[in-house]
Design brief:
mainly alpha; two-stranded antiparallel ribbon; 2 strands
Length: about 120
């Protein structure tokens, strides 16, 4: 067995992550306007390759488990492959139109919600 595969499997089965995998180099990344202001920088963690591999393996296994056991909520749109928050918004708009069609929801209530959200 490949030593790296053995280490990753051992880490996942025991829940113990080797200390050298836990280290990251944090660098400042400039985000806007004045480079003299520290508030115009955000931290970025550069992880080592082994840490990235462990994260990807764990993510795939966890996602596979959640999918195969039907644990994920059907309307969880963010952070899922082939789902996006755009689909979530389309679902909300579709719901509003459906309720308007059967007179459950009035335009007045939509405008009330809109005015409350902008305050």
């Amino acid at each position: 067995m490949d030593p790296l595969v053995h280490i990753l499997n051992l880490s996942l089965s025991t829940g113990i992550i080797p200390n050298n995998i836990k280290t990251a180099k944090v660098i400042p990344v400039f985000k806007r306007v004045d480079p003299q202001l520290p508030s115009n920088y955000r931290p970025m963690s550069l992880l080592n390759v082994f840490s990235e591999l462990l994260e990807k393996v764990m993510c795939k296994r966890l996602y596979s488990y959640l999918q195969s056991n039907n644990i994920l909520y059907q309307y969880q749109f963010g952070f899922r492959k082939f789902y996006s928050t755009t689909f979530g918004l389309l679902d909300v708009v579709d719901n509003i139109y459906n309720h308007l069609d059967i007179d459950i929801l009035s335009l007045a209530s939509i405008w009330t919600c809109r005015s409350l959200s902008t305050q």
